[in-house]
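Subject: design request, 181 residues
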């Protein structure tokens, strides 16, 4: 799925959820994925593992057949991104009909991981909402670093994620961060 298709898909899902890009900013990602049939929880994982997605078609009575787990050692903001990222793998890469397991770790990113990152960013920092908030902060006189900090706070994401999203949504060079999403 290319970036434009990802944006369209996310916008449709958010609209169905009741999210308004003209008025809303923060999205409760746990509530969002739970309403789509996922169980979400923290797990004690190795330090280099961020999270996982398990899909078991035809689970017992349909319960717990879609599970997203996040490393309990991660920050609240990073957990939000991990949940959105694992959900993105379900939408983008799960083909249906068979069991599916995806494990996220901090090792290098391939095209599939970058695609899931972009989907996740669109989901928890929707483009039009993000642009609206960015412009409000810019018009208040804040500079890029301060804007990044404020956007990270508004959307409850890691600062690195907010800075990267600025560079995707705004046609400027955002300050560099040492991590991707």
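Subject: RE: design request

Done. Sequence follows.
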């Amino acid at each position: 799925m290319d970036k434009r298709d990802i944006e369209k898909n996310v916008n449709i899902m958010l609209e169905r959820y009741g999210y308004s890009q003209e008025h809303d900013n923060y999205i409760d990602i746990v509530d969002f994925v739970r309403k789509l049939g996922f169980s979400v929880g923290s797990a004690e994982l190795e330090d280099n593992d961020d999270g996982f997605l398990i899909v078991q078609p035809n689970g017992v009575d349909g319960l717990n057949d879609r599970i997203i787990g996040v490393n309990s050692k991660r920050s609240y903001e990073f957990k939000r991104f991990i949940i959105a990222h694992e959900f993105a793998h379900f939408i983008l890469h799960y083909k249906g009909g068979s069991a599916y397991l995806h494990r996220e770790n901090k090792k290098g990113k391939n095209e599939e991981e970058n695609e899931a990152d972009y989907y996740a960013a669109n989901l928890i920092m929707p483009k039009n909402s993000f642009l609206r908030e960015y412009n409000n902060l810019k018009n208040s006189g804040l500079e890029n670093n301060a804007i990044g900090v404020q956007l990270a706070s508004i959307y409850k994401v890691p600062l690195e994620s907010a800075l990267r999203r600025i560079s995707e949504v705004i046609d400027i060079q955002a300050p560099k961060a040492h991590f991707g999403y």
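Residues 41 and 53 are 11 Å apart (CA to CA).
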